[in-house]
Amino acid sequence: MTELLQTIAPPSRSLPVVIFGAGSIVTDAHLPAYAKAGFTVAGIYDPDRAKAEAILPPGAVAYASMADATAAGTAVVYDLAVPPAAIPGILRTLPEGAVALIQKPMGSDLKTADEIIGILRTRNIRAAVNFQLRFAPMALALKDAIAQGQLGDLVDFDAWLALDTPWHLWAFLADLPRVEILLHSIHYLDFMRDLLGNPLGIAARTMGHPSSTVSNTRTAMMMDYGPEVRANLSINHNHAFGRKFQACEFRICGTKGAAYMKLGVNLDYPRGEPDELWLNTGAGWEQVPLIGNWFIEAFVGRITQVMRFAVGEDDALQGSAEDAWHTMALVEAAYDSAAAPLYPIRTAPDA
């Protein structure tokens, strides 16, 4: 099997990172990823300073104020690992011309995404959004295989999840009207866009489950990519009947070959299982040896590409905020579709 790209090449030099937020995503993913990438965390700002102090890596400081956190100007990369509602306010305090990584989603709705884009443009802040699935080793390898023509033209994208997600781990979700698409399947929609571009339209349904107090945990979505491409997502976070028939996988087919991806982190969460990538390009299914998983290697890839841009070694930000806006527009369209009736069915024959 041809060796496939699974990493983003590290830059020859790097800038310190300033993190806003001290929640579990920082401790579980950002800090381990930045340490693995060899990047220095200058400090962390959180309104609860004690919370920031408790997770500081060696040499980092807990900033006492936003002013302290932004005092380095454009000589650092800013990492906004904060809830959606906090993003616009922090962006308004960043130095003009700064480079930033914004935690997904890019706001809680498209109106906020519009606001964020306006702030970035006005202040000339160059920002990426942390849709890091694009940078998982299996995703990079698949995109490399596609770029080499191994799958031909893509004609099918299927995402199938049937698993038992422990929603109780995130108490703040209980009061949110938008959960499943905005906070979970948004990754899959963004990855689909990365492969296929923007769809022409969407039909969607999202709903809760009798066993859960979370507003929506099950989703079905069908994207319109014209007459040649079929793209569907079937998501069920309440398949609580044992591991045997649970699944978290993509099937991506082209005119010359096909790929199967297993997203292991969501199975037996939070312990997870290893990711898998299989390719069939005409000689049967072969498993691609992976160098890591979505968590945390995708976070390494995401910050590495941002850093390459920040130090001038990449001309463009992959997964920029301008691009991420289209993922937010797709999410908004999904919720609009879910709130509207589907095509009506006749209930009686014509007289």
Account of the 3D structure:
This protein starts with 16 loop residues before the first strand and ends in a 12-residue tail after the last helix. The radius of gyration is 21 Å and the shape is globular. The mean pLDDT is 96. It has helices at 24-37, 49-53, 66-69, 87-93, 110-123, 137-147, 180-196, 294-310, 321-339; strands spanning 17-20, 41-45, 61-62, 77-80, 99-102, 126-129, 154-162, 201-207, 218-224, 230-236, 247-254, 258-262, 276-280, 285-287. With 351 residues, the chain is an alpha/beta fold. An eight-stranded mixed beta sheet has the order 8-9-10-7-11-12-13-14. It folds into two domains: 17-133 and 299-319, 3-Layer(aba) Sandwich (Rossmann fold), CATH 3.40.50; 134-294, Dihydrodipicolinate Reductase, domain 2. The longest helix is centred in the C-terminal third of the chain and has 19 residues, at 321-339. Helix 4 (87-93) runs parallel beside helix 5, helix 5 (110-123) runs antiparallel to helix 9 and helix 7 crosses helix 9 (321-339).
